[in-house]
């Protein structure tokens, strides 16, 4: 095993995140949060290049998330946590819920059936969190009262927050190379041209599929109370990741078991 | 590497630009009056009737598909041509905001199950010994799941009767068969004006829609409107053509005096309630269990059926009960039964039809033959399977019906 992290993964993560935020800025211009679905449909069918930028935004963000996972796996395998202070490691672990929240709110604000239904589920899940539930909901979702307003704000704030922290501190303002940006842009553009992300119209059906990473939680909600399925179980891997430097073997075992368990449910959710 | 990536990037950009230039774009996002996005309205100019107006309903609540895309392929994914087909009706016509209680009822109705026809056929042919035997199997929906018949009676049903039920796919076959079936639209569809480019849905169901199926056995739909299925061959020929009118399936008919209700402008749905035609939620075996309207519901009654439901056409005007026809809104006086003839004690057991149906078509000597050498279309599976059924009769007459006793009543008996 190599002792160092592969730089192209880290720079890919940074470049993809930057591209996602830049394309997000472009599509935020015609976006009106009071009519989210009309805006999204307008991006798809009215605004020139709107659909392309929306697809590009979607894939750059997804790629950034997947590269974050890769980055973490590499850090675990190369024992990167031993060379960093515990605080840095906590920051990496903390980036997960933040990134998932950014992706999740991205689904909500498109205002289609998948997004709004996922938003309502998330809203109800946050209420099960003792003490902080109401505050968290007001901060991030509140879909039933404010539509996509809160989700839109938290999507913007957290995205910029993450970029700011990463670029100012973690990457120490080093300039991203043009070829890094180009490489990840090409990948996202290819995906955007081949598989443009869909929009789900309202359907009178009892079965709604949320964002792909949320399907495992949706499936778990069939068998467990909301707090356990939606709060406790998703927090387990973050906790395991935070305390990884303290007890690597136990946490690694926990993470592997959790992911096996979660992907079984996710797969079942996908097949429904 | 750097060069390859940049080259690939440029190529993709050109591709993306070409794709964008070729993309169909609307000047604005079309929305319904409730603010729902319906991109379909940009391309489709069809205008259904007011009750399903395009500006209010849009296209996708009925025809499904994806109304959020302008791209034809994406927008038409999962679309249905006939939203009223019973296979999808729960998601379309039966959506929560529309007619949610109807599809489940229709699924159990005799027009959807054909349980009466199937059960009687199997019972007479000795395949079942009791009406309640194979209750779930004797249903079109169950038969549709099988590719071919498991018995002679079922083979006969699938080939000769299998087009007169609500599961039958509208437009699947050419000719008059293509006009039959279609779920809700088997009854509720009427042609729209040419410029609307969309048929209309109506609750004023014309006689023609009912008679598309109800024209055999008792020939009720024909006799009612003054037509008799003639045994002739269209003779005498006139001006080089058949001298007699004929039905869509080629049977010749002759004009006879129509029913008095037909002359007054009544159609089937004036008397027959939605609960009779679309089902009341119960699964019946026989037609007579489902039918609830009686002659005396209007004539001498206050418009209440034997199951306690009210016939909408029967209304009170002052002190008098009248009947308002559904098609033209004509107000008709309701004649009570003759106090002397009908109420006389010696006529107590007579059904109304025993006296008031002077002519009934009667088909004698009905028999069928199966030719195993030929193939015939199985209307349920849509495949040609071995064995062709042919129907024969000795003779047919329109005459005063034979009377017989059924339970406590004297009724007319008509071989069909």
Give descriptors for this structure.
heterodimer, A: 272 residues, mainly alpha, Cytochrome Bc1 Complex, Chain C, B: 416 residues, alpha+beta, 3-stranded antiparallel β-sheet, two-stranded antiparallel ribbon, 18 helices, 26% helix
Set out the fold topology.
The complex is a heterodimer of chains A (272) and B (416).
Chain A: H1 7-28, H2 36-45, H3 50-77, H4 80-83, H5 86-109, H6 113-127, H7 133-140, H8 143-146, H9 149-170, H10 178-194, H11 215-220, H12 226-242, H13 248-271
Helix pairs in contact in A: 1-3, 1-9, 1-10, 2-3, 3-5, 3-10, 5-6, 5-9, 5-12, 6-7, 6-12, 12-13
Chain B: H1 2-22, H2 40-43, H3 60-63, H4 72-75, H5 102-108, H6 110-113, H7 115-124, H8 140-144, H9 152-161, H10 185-188, E1 189-190, E2 200-201, H11 207-211, H12 220-224, E3 227-229, E4 253-255, H13 260-263, H14 268-271, H15 274-277, H16 287-290, H17 295-298, E5 314-317, E6 320-324, E7 331-333, H18 352-356, E8 360-364, E9 367-378, E10 383-392, E11 395-399, E12 402-406, E13 409-413
Antiparallel strand pairs in B: 1-2, 3-4, 5-6, 6-7, 8-11, 9-10, 12-13
Q: How far is it from the N-terminal to the C-terminal residue of chain B, by CA?
A: 85 Å
Class derived from helix and strand content of chain B: alpha+beta
Largest Cβ-defined interface: A-B, 31 and 36 residues
CATH superfamily of chain A: Cytochrome Bc1 Complex, Chain C
Describe what this molecule looks like in 3D:
The complex is a heterodimer of chains A (272) and B (416). Chain A contains 13 helices and no strands. The longest helix of chain A is centred in the N-terminal third of the chain and has 28 residues, at 50-77. Chain A is globular. Chain A is 74% helix and 0% strand. In chain B, 26% of the residues lie in helices and 15% in strands. Chain B starts with a helix and ends with a strand. The model of chain B has no long low-confidence stretch (mean pLDDT 92). Chains A and B meet through helix 2 and helix 10 of A and helix 1 of B.
């Amino acid at each position: 095993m190599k002792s160092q992290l592969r730089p192209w993964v880290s720079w890919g993560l940074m470049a993809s995140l930057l591209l996602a935020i830049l394309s997000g800025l472009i599509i935020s211009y015609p976006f009106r949060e009071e009519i989210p679905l009309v805006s999204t449909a307008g991006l798809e069918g009215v605004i020139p290049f709107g659909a392309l930028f929306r697809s590009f935004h979607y894939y750059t963000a997804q790629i950034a998330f997947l590269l974050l996972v890769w980055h973490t796996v590499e850090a675990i395998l190369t024992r990167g946590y031993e060379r960093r202070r515990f605080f840095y490691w906590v920051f990496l672990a903390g980036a997960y819920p933040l990134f998932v929240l950014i992706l999740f709110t991205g689904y909500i604000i498109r205002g289609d059936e998948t997004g709004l239904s996922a938003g309502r589920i998330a809203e109800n899940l946050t209420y099960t969190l003792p003490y902080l539930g109401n505050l968290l909901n007001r901060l991030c979702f509140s879909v039933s009262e404010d539509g996509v307003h809160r989700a839109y704000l938290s999507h913007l704030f957290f995205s910029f927050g993450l970029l700011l922290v990463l670029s100012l501190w973690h990457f120490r303002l080093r300039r991203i190379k043009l070829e890094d940006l180009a490489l990840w842009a090409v990948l996202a553009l290819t995906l955007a041209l081949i598989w443009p992300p869909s929009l789900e119209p309202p359907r009178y059906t009892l079965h709604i599929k949320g964002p792909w990473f949320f399907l495992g939680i949706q499936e778990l909600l069939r068998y467990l109370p909301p707090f356990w399925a939606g709060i406790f179980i998703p927090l387990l891997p973050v906790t395991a990741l935070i305390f990884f430097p303290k007890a690597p073997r136990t946490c690694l075992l926990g993470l592997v078991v959790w992911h096996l368990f979660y992907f079984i449910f996710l797969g079942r959710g996908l097949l429904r | 590497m750097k060069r390859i990536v940049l080259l690939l990037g440029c190529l993709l950009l050109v591709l993306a630009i070409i794709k964008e230039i070729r993309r169909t774009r609307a000047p604005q996002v079309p929305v319904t009056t409730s603010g729902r996005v319906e991109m379909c309205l940009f391309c489709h100019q069809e205008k259904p009737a007011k009750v399903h107006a395009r500006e209010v309903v849009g296209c996708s609540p009925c025809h499904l598909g994806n109304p959020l895309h302008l791209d034809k392929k994406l927008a038409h994914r999962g679309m249905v041509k006939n939203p009223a087909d019973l296979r999808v009706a729960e998601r379309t016509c039966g959506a929560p905001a529309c007619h949610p209680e109807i599809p489940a009822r229709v699924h159990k109705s005799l027009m959807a199950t054909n349980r009466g026809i199937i059960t009687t056929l199997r019972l007479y042919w000795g395949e079942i010994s009791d009406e309640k035997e194979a209750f779930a199997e004797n249903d079109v929906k169950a038969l549709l799941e099988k590719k071919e018949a498991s018995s002679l009676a079922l083979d006969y049903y699938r080939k000769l009767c299998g087009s007169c039920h609500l599961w039958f796919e509208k437009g699947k076959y050419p000719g008059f068969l293509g006009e039959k079936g279609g779920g809700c639209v088997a009854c509720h569809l009427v042609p729209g004006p040419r410029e609307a480019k969309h048929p209309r849905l109506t609750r004023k169901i014309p006689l023609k829609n009912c008679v598309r199926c109800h024209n055999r056995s008792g020939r009720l739909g024909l006799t009612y409107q003054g037509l008799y299925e003639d045994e002739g061959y269209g003779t005498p020929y006139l001006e080089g053509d058949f001298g007699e009118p004929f039905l869509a399936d080629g049977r010749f008919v002759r004009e006879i005096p129509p029913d008095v209700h037909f002359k007054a402008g009544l159609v089937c749905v004036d008397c027959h309630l939605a609960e009779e035609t679309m089902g009341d939620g119960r699964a019946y075996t026989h037609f007579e269990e489902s039918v609830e309207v009686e002659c005396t519901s209007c004539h001498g009654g206050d418009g209440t059926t034997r199951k306690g439901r009210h016939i909408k056409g029967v209304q009170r005007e002052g002190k008098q009960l009248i009947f308002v026809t559904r098609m033209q809104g004509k107000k008709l006086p309701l004649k009570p039964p003759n106090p002397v003839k009908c109420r006389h004690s010696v006529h107590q057991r007579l059904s109304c039809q025993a006296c008031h149906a002077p002519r009934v078509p009667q088909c004698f000597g009905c028999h069928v033959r199966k030719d195993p050498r030929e193939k015939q279309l199985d209307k349920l599976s849509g495949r040609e399977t071995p064995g062709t059924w042919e129907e024969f009769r000795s003779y047919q007459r329109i005459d005063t019906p034979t009377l017989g006793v059924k339970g406590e009543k004297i009724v007319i008996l008509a071989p069909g």
